[in-house]
Amino acid sequence: MIIKKTALFFLLQCLLIFPFLFEIPFPRYLLEQDFPGMRIGPEPTTDSFIAVMYGDAEGSTPGNALVVDPKKPFRKLSRFGNAFLNRFMCAQLPNEVLKSISIIDSPGILSGEKQRLSRGYDFCQVLQWFAERVDRIILLFDAHKLDISDEFSEAIKSFRGQDDKIRVVLNKADQVDTQQLMRVYGALMWSLGKVINTPEVLRVYIGSFWSQPLQNTENRRLFEVEAQDLFQDIKSLPQKAAVRKLNDLIKRARLAKVHAYIISHLRKEMPSVFGKEAKKRELISRLPEIYIQLQREHHISPGDFPEVKKMQEQLETCDFSKFHSLKPKLIEAVDNMLANRIASLMSLMSQEESNMPTQMVHGGAFDGTTTGPFGHGYGEGAGEGVDEDEWVVAKDKPVYDEIFYTLSPINGKISGVNAKKEMVNSKLPNSVLGKIWKLADCDNDGMLDEEEFALAKHLIKIKLDGYELPGILPPHLVPPSHRKPLQMAE
Description:
One of its GO terms (cellular component) is endoplasmic reticulum. With 490 residues, this protein is an alpha/beta fold.
């Protein structure tokens, strides 16, 4: 039973792509394939929400038909009316990436005079509906267009409570040089800080996430590292989908419990016959005080209460006399679920994950970053020389040999004390130098011969260049004189 639920979690998992100002072909970049309804242009060409999902054959389903399909998780969207449904569609295609994630491509944000035009539906409410159900929200920015419009600010507010899902992508960063990129990044962070009221700094990925040649290659390595981090974040979503949905269930249960306390309190305060409207207006205006009273009575955290202003707006149209009184047995059932049943469900999920293969995203642009010699880090750092017949350390060994023979070798080897005198000149901490020593001392005799010393110097250079040290010495870095004994030992 639990396995079926997990499969459903993965199926319903979504990635919300939220383009800012200019349509960026980021979904196509991930899929490496066009999809029905996609348009690319220098203006905000996408005026529709497009759900890109896996299908055996390529095709599309319009919004009105989509919301009545019981196999799709969009039935609740019917409440936004025809104005929205006419601008909503599902694109299906047989793409390997879509077997693990689905992508919701949203309309571009309007700026200037265009933002005054009505879309015909509550744009922010639709964004909020998707934001509550997706696993990741990606805000896309063009390196040349960082101004934040009023509509963008309102859209950001609809993501409140979902801050942990938000990631920011600064695209086409190759079109500016390093100095300009530094200023663009600073301007972006400053602009975001004004509209996103969180103490944490949003994670911003910098790169050129499209298939065009780089116009400025001086930051190529930075772009590759950033793309790898972003892809790793997206690739790990299937593993966390079940936990994330369970987390949302807990959040909604706690919110429902708080709503029950609020509604029952308002019902209890209402008069039986006369003065209902006046009392209703009084209770709505006193809602902040009621929140504080309920916090004290039921020991509820302030963060569990809905936003006061929004709650007041919703209560304006409600008849308080029709509200239900508090049912302690239902509250007790919710508390029991949160305290006991959720814990047992977490245990079942952990057991299932240990018995199932790791779920990762494959296909499209994700495979391009891991396969062949163009994978991230291939031929760099500890991977340098992996395809060469000659030992990669040999090119710098004459320089290392000169240092080696100044350290008083005995029988072709230097002691750890003498090696330390040279190695500490790198100013690396002892924890790193100790790891380098362990990797370089291939025969574990506590001394270094000239090849082992050259290897130690090479590993120090790798670390000083900003690369990570390998956990185990790769075969291509093993000194030639130590390779045969290692092979025999294996």
